[in-house]
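Annotated sample (chain length 230).
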Amino acid sequence: MISSNTPSPDRKVGRYDPIGHNPRNDRAGGGQRSEDEQDLQNFIKISSREEPKHYASKIAWNARGDRHMPLIATGAPAINIAIKAVAIARKYLEKDELELMCQPAFRDRKMGASLALYLSSVPAAELSATLNSEFGELTVGKNSKPQTVAGAIAGRARDGTGVVVTSIGPDAVCNACVATCHARIYLEDDKIDVRAIPIFEEVEKTSVDGSMHTMTALKLKVLIEGVQDS
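Output written by the structure step:
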């Protein structure tokens, strides 16, 4: 668990963030943009037509300078690209001894597959003990219900246990990310929040003919953090 005594890096207090939306659609009467709305103009919009590495280098470069830009992605293919880009950037940052995390948020209250991923980084040594502690295991598929998965994540978080959410394929990865967004909302009244560290891992799967083959899974290592009163 990330200590509640230490301010969490770049934490978004709001669990819905209208990043990338036209402020005129969300504010009656138009008028001058607020300071918060101006801050939301600096982001990286993810396209499903690009490869994850296209974004990973920029994410890593920003992290080295402690200048994190949120990622916005709509639809399972783009969300899959976004979270994979973070996982690749995390590998790029190993030699810098930095650990990269993301905190997903719904872009509106429809709670669909339109997400903002807020990034943060800390010295890897600060999370070494946490990452080596015991985590629960959850598997998410393309037909999994994100709300059900979110309930399991939230339940583990309330018990003080982190969880590793494993998914394979764009739809399953999207469900895992959306579930993490829901879990953040479920935990708001408990003064608990979560961050995710995306990790690639080779897993053995059984084919319909009984043979074994290796596939690359995307694992979200979900860390718990306490939230202090403002």
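Annotation: The radius of gyration is 17 Å.
Annotation: Confidence is low (pLDDT under 50) at residues 3-8, 20-40.
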